[in-house]
Design a protein that fits this description.
There is one protein chain. This protein is mainly α. The protein has two domains: about 1-30; about 30-105. The chain has two helices and no strands. The protein has helices spanning about 1-30, 35-105. It starts with a helix and ends with a helix.
C-alpha cells in the first residue's frame, strides 16, 4: 500500500514537472524578443542540430552493438572450443579406464 502511494506521488511530481516545462517553453516562445520568423528559423536550426546529433548517436550505438555482438560471438566460440577439448579429454580418460578394467579382468 505504501509503495503504491509513493509511486503515485512520484508520478505526480514527474507529470507536474513535465507540464511546467512545457508551459514554460510555450510562454518563452510566445514572449520571445525575436520576430516569429527569426524564432521559427532558430527552432528549425535547433531541430536540425538535434536530429543530426540523434542520428550520429544512433549510428554510434549500432556500431557499438555490432562490436559487442562480435565480441560475444568470439567469446562463445572460445568457450565452445574449450568445452570440446575437455569433453574429448574426459572421453579419452573414460575409455582408458574401461580398457584398463578389461585388461585387468583378462588377467584374472
Amino acid at each position: 500500500m505504501a509503495d503504491e502511494e509513493r509511486s503515485t506521488g512520484t508520478s505526480g511530481v514527474v507529470l507536474s514537472f513535465l507540464l511546467g516545462a512545457l508551459s514554460g517553453a510555450a510562454l518563452a516562445i510566445l514572449f520571445a524578443p525575436r520576430s516569429g520568423r527569426e524564432t521559427r528559423e532558430m527552432l528549425g536550426e535547433r531541430l536540425r542540430e538535434t536530429a543530426d546529433r540523434s542520428r550520429r548517436l544512433g549510428e554510434k550505438a549500432v556500431e557499438r552493438s555490432r562490436e559487442a555482438a562480435a565480441d560475444a560471438t568470439g567469446y562463445l566460440e572460445r568457450q565452445r572450443e574449450a568445452l570440446e577439448k575437455r569433453r574429448d579429454r574426459l572421453s579419452a580418460a573414460v575409455e582408458a579406464g574401461r580398457q584398463a578394467y578389461r585388461d585387468e579382468k583378462e588377467k584374472m
